[in-house]
């Protein structure tokens, strides 16, 4: 199972942690894990490369983990853009979870 935790401070997203492989199918054939990975990595790329926020970003492919931390000292526009991207990610993950609830867990703290 993959667990994704969205951390917020007030209304702002400040961190996302995704851990574990979904276990839907064998490695290389797991469409749920592939879809989830594409969503999470796409959001990270949006924050790092499109918005240009110098977020802490760690990936461990073996463990199936990703940790993205938004810095405290970013501008209002950058925080807004991060909120839009991570809000879209949250909605997308929840939508994917509807069809694959035994493989994906989502939490907002």
CATH superfamily: Cysteine protease Prp
Overall CATH class: Alpha Beta
Classify the secondary structure makeup into a structural class.
alpha+beta
Which segments are poorly predicted (pLDDT under 50) over 5 or more consecutive residues?
none
Named CATH architecture: 2-Layer Sandwich
Strand content: 25-35%
> Which H/E pattern describes the elements?
EEHEEHE
Strand order of the largest sheet: 3-4-2-1-5
Task: Summarize the entry for a quick read.
The chain is 41% helix and 28% strand. The protein has helices at residues 31-51, 76-99, and strands spanning 2-9, 12-19, 56-60, 65-69, 104-108.
What does this structure look like?
The chain has about 110 residues and is an alpha+beta fold. Helix content is about 40%, strand content about 30%. The protein has a 5-stranded mixed sheet, covered by helices on one side. The relative contact order is 0.26.
Strand-helix topology:
Elements: E1 2-9, E2 12-19, H1 31-51, E3 56-60, E4 65-69, H2 76-99, E5 104-108
Parallel strand pairs: 1-5
Antiparallel strand pairs: 1-2, 2-4, 3-4
Helix pairs in contact: 1-2
Throw out a few tags for this protein.
109 residues; alpha+beta; Alpha-Beta Plaits; five-stranded mixed beta sheet; 2 helices; 28% strand
């Amino acid at each position: 199972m993959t667990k994704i935790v969205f951390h917020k401070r007030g209304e702002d997203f400040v961190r996302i942690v995704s851990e574990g492989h979904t276990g839907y199918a064998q490695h290389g054939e797991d469409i749920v894990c592939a879809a989830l990975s594409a969503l999470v990595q796409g959001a990270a790329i949006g924050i790092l490369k499109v918005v240009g926020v110098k977020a802490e970003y760690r990936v461990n492919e073996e463990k199936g983990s990703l940790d993205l931390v938004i810095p405290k000292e970013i501008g209002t526009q950058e925080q807004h853009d991060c909120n839009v991207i991570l809000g879209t990610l949250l909605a997308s993950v929840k939508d994917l979870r509807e069809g694959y609830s035994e493989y994906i867990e989502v939490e907002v703290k």
